[in-house]
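Sync notes, pocket subgroup
Present: LS, DG
LS reminded everyone that the earlier model was apo-only. Rerun requested with magnesium ion included. Inputs:
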Amino acid sequence: MRLLATYFRRFLKHRTRLVLGILSIPLAQSLDVATTILVGQALDRVRTSSDVDWLTTTLLLLGGAALAHAFFRFWQRWLIVVVSRRFEVELKQELFDHLARLDFAFHDRSRSGDLVSRLTADVEALRMFLGPGLMYTLGAVVIVPISLSWLMTLNLWLGLSIGLPMIAVGVIMKRLTPRLHRESTAVQESLADISHRAQEDFGGVRVVKGYHREGAQARRFDRASAKNRDNQVALGRARGLTHAAINGSFDLTFAVILTVGGLAAIDRTLPVGSLFQFIDLTLKVFWPLIALGWIAGMYPRAVASAERVDTLLATRSALGEREAGEAPEQAVAGALELRGVGFTYPTGTKPALRGIDARVEPGGSLGVVGPTGCGKSTLLLLLGRQMDPQEGAVLLDGRDLRELALPHARGALGYVPQDAFLFSVPYADNIRFGAEGDLSDEEVAELIEQAAMTEEVARFPEGAQTLIGERGVTLSGGQRQRTCIARALARDPKVLVLDDCLSAVDTETERQLLGTLREAGSGRTVVVAAHRLSTVASCDEILVLDDKGSIAQRGRHEELLEAAGWYRDTWEQQQRREAGNREVAEPEGGHA
Ligand SMILES: Nc1ncnc2c1ncn2[C@@H]1O[C@H](COP(=O)(O)OP(=O)(O)OP(=O)(O)O)[C@@H](O)[C@H]1O
Ligand SMILES: [Mg+2]
């Protein structure tokens, strides 16, 4: 309850609309009751009087009351619906912002489907309970006592006897609502499962087809559909039961009115006009009572949703608050340093990195190589403060990254991840994504040129405006990688971090590209991880990591070639393969 109150406080931000909406409720309800009473009394008077003057007055009154009733009814709904929708949008926005700022580790352990359902289903449950829930509760609180007490003054026994089935319907609704919610949640979950499966299968369509798994995937989809069908049937049953219970109570109440009231009318102890009032007011009171039961049944769900949303909002990023830390007094120079860095993933059993010491001067370059899984990507993520090391420190211009505000720690950095992810937006917008401000078409064209993509982009159906497929599937691996480089260059970063992002580009294009990057980046610090050693050969220093995440060797390319070890072996192997490839590509060349 306390939690729901904190969410209700967000409603109070829209105080004026809310108060006006709430004030309209008793007005609308009293006018509703008044029209019934007017008609009922007129019915009795019509039988005894032949005068028409009063009838005109009554009709005018009735018309006025009906108009005012319609106005307040509309006003009440309109105001409260607007407030509740604003609440919904604001809460969703706040949750989304919060989730987007949480660190990698949080997103690694959360399923995106769960986060989506927090954003949609839980916020919706809160909105329903606080918005329409409040409106229907207040409506019932006004109309039920007024109507029932009025009816009791007309005929005490009849009033009492219809009170009972009416209260019963509220109780039935309160009991059935949780079941309705349970079944509808199950339906939603199975629907989400269906769309998740379809999405994954279509997303991975190349893998599915490559392995001829269409049949097996279709069967998995069938099972998910069958589950959804069963859930829909169960929901239908619960709904049917609810409708039957409501209609049954309705009919029972009318049977009571007709029996007790009808007998009284025949006896002439109850005028026909009063009988009409019983019937009409019963109709008007019934729905608010059903709504009241429905809201009472919704309460546990609203509390659970409030708790879940609250847990998320209370989750703090392991990296501290977004704005925490200092902004550096002067512009970033780009000196990077790792001091005794050790890092273990929250879910990892052994350290991914141990005792890493390294330093790159502004404008210098560092290569990171080593066998797969040795910790290259991890090291690069630490440089952008996507995570904090448990041991040692990462320093930018001599300042521990943890002391700097996150936007400053990351703002100076252009990061190209190992998996070249692109958004399904026009090609140029993927590049603009990297920039802090907006970029002109000429600036984008310049970046495309730097990424050695100009000719290929010109061949796209609509050039730089071509819409890219989901995750970038309509581009080749190498095109995706170079586009990611252009995106990183878009912010003209002081530090460029490249995580094996030239692996799908041929050696010639790579050489050309690295040349441009260095030229364009005179004064730019470059850290590059790679499998292909030619990528790092010209770096000022190269770190060779071993499979335990420690530095096995370090030095310049020439120095490393002189010492026996992983670097020299791998270099020779790669050179032989490269030469082999060249021979296959140019069979007639090089033979005497
Ligand atoms: N999010 C994660 N959670 C837990 N462990 C992880 C995570 N990411 C990587 N690891 C583990 O940390 C180690 C280092 O991984 P990392 O990705 O840094 O290697 P890498 O050198 O980049 O490999 P590759 O050459 O294949 O790109 C690996 O053992 C990996 O299994
Ligand atoms: Mg990697």
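DG: The chain is about 65% helix and 10% strand.
LS: Residues 424 and 470 are 5 Å apart (CA to CA).
Action: DG to write up.
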